[in-house]
Fold this sequence. Notes:
Layout: H1 3-10, H2 17-58, H3 67-78, H4 81-114, H5 116-131, H6 134-145, H7 147-172, H8 176-184, H9 189-227, H10 233-242, H11 246-272, E1 299-306, E2 326-331, E3 335-339, H12 346-354, E4 360-366, E5 369-372, H13 384-389, H14 395-404, H15 409-412, H16 421-439, E6 442-447, H17 455-472, E7 476-481, H18 485-490, E8 495-498
Parallel strand pairs: 3-7, 3-8, 5-6, 6-7
Antiparallel strand pairs: 1-2, 1-4
Helix pairs in contact: 3-11, 4-5, 4-7, 4-9, 5-7, 6-7, 7-9, 9-10, 9-11, 10-11, 14-16, 16-17
Amino acid sequence: xxxxxxxxxxxxxxxxxxxxxxxxxxxxxxxxxxxxxxxxxxxxxxxxxxxxxxxxxxxxxxxxxxxxxxxxxxxxxxxxxxxxxxxxxxxxxxxxxxxxxxxxxxxxxxxxxxxxxxxxxxxxxxxxxxxxxxxxxxxxxxxxxxxxxxxxxxxxxxxxxxxxxxxxxxxxxxxxxxxxxxxxxxxxxxxxxxxxxxxxxxxxxxxxxxxxxxxxxxxxxxxxxxxxxxxxxxxxxxxxxxxxxxxxxxxxxxxxxxxxxxxxxxxxxxxxxxxxxxxxxxxxxxxxxxxxxxxxxxxxxxxxxxxxxxxxxxxxxxxxxxxxxxxxxxxxxxxxxxxxxxxxxxxxxxxxxxxxxxxxxxxxxxxxxxxxxxxxxxxxxxxxxxxxxxxxxxxxxxxxxxxxxxxxxxxxxxxxxxxxxxxxxxxxxxxxxxxxxxxxxxxxxxxxxxxxxxxxxxxxxxxxxxxxxxxxxxxxxxxxxxxxxxxxxxxxxxxxxxxxx
Length: 501
């Protein structure tokens, strides 16, 4: 048994090195969390001490309430039902404003990410909401919406620019490599969104939601204070100001800081349910079904193809045979090996055939391409099984393919992020082979498919590739990128293309 397979079989044992490393990492993470909490507690105690010293030095309770008096007042306040009704009233207004802002920000950011003209138009209200002084907007909002809706509108306006900018930034980010893989293997719309696009957007939303929630609290209370809304936190602050009740004012200030931090924590906890790989982020669809195989046999025609990068250097040239570029003529049943030194452009050639790159010359490809990418391009938070199921393959097809490549059912249920390099390589190869089998016809692009595999795993992989190609017969074209001529010979390759460095 090869080393890669041995690692796979040992993964569930108590003595597994990876498990020990994971336990150590979790312990370290827990210690870091405890240290952060202690640092924050000590920081809070320091400022409470500064506050107590300041109150003692000033010695004017009407101007500065001492910490002791403030905390006594807080205890008296929280013991009444009116206090909780007041807090609930303000909290619901704040939550309504935040929800409105989040909904608008998400919808507008989504449209803006697709339409540049709309993005330019949306920039004006975003800049307006983010730069106009709050007091000025409060005066206008009083005329437009009335005092009853002012706190809702103000909290939404304050948090909208933060959320919109963060979501738009995330939506404009691209993961070109995963987009190509999802298109090639026909991920369903929601699967692509959840497992390709959402992992990019999520960190931006998470980083902005907490600060937006804190701003919502402050702006909601400020609006209530201005409009003197009864039975609200802002209304209670206004009453305390009228009666010069300094302990109550300081108590509400402390409580608002506490409520703001709790709200941020709750928001991040709720968002964590939608984190990539979390409970609500692991489901998958069935993928799109393959199109019916065409009567036309797969074929590849390249005529003097070159790809030029920004420095003007032509990176693809046929070695010693055609300085004008690469020319290929492949039909169903043909098997070609592409060889050459690292960096010569072998993967670039596969990208041209798959349609991901264009260059000078002529490239005509008939048939669907299935590629095991050199970077694997798998979804780490999903299991190996789900990575294949979301491409539209059946449960039976998936398990049969994985087992033929030496991956067990237990391996299939592990998150791909925990796979070794060899296991990822075999999973990627399985996806390409299943795609060709499901379609019944196509062009199989293998980019160093056996790299990182031990001897036993390599033999299993070669055997499975040969089986799939033999079943497809003249309905399949194989283009293999390799550094080893023995690998090409093992796959019965009859034609070679050597790329000059």
